[in-house]
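U., I forgot to send this yesterday:
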Amino acid sequence: MNQALQIGPLSLPYPVLLTLIAIALGGFVAHRLARAADVEVEPTLTYMLLVGLVAARLAYVLRWHDQYFDLPLSILNIRDGGWEPAAGVVAAMLFGLQRARRQAGLRKPVLAAAFATGAVLLLGGIATFLVASSAVRLPPLPLSSLDGRSVSLADFAGKPTVVNLWATWCPPCRREMPALQQAQAANPDVNFVFVNQGEESQTITAFLDRQGLALRNVLVDPQNSVGAALGHGGLPTTLFFDTNGRLADTRIGELSQATLAQRLARIRATPPPTR
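Result:
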């Protein structure tokens, strides 16, 4: 099942779409109640949003501080998707309640906004998790290596496996390649598979040589069959399969060392099948 809303070349992950809907609903409810109470709620909502975003990012950075502190400027690269939503919601709610203490008319709009936003995020997160945890497995699609050998993704089952869908023309794909190469070298217990989408082996080899990248398990998929089979048209997309070959997590967009480490920990936590 597709895990993102595809609008032409734009791929909007459902968790991001869910967050936008939750924020919009919370703002709508707060404005309705504030209008009835004849109070101005817009500045408080704006500050709540900013406080929530900063808190969610800082909480994530602190949790994965080893990866971020090696490259301090990467803390500012919010494109990596590193957030702790629960920390953001709690911080925004506490800030809003503090503001409401000074203006009693704000109490009901602020509480309603926090409840509506949190409820949508919680229920939507549960639904997204259940959908993402469905029986999606490594597809037995016939691909080829750069030297022309026939390879199937299903052959990698039995170990945690990271499947990166990428292309040489994709800027975020190129930016995340050093982190993926480093992770492949540092984690021999995990399969890293780089499935190029829509290009020929000569183009791929020339790109890897120019960039000085020494990647193992680079596969050629000129017909974009893997992206189509797994429901992902946007690049880069990285899929994380557990030891049993089941899809455990997906990252649509650029990865950093921290967001990669988070997902590697998750697929390692799945016990192997009993024999």
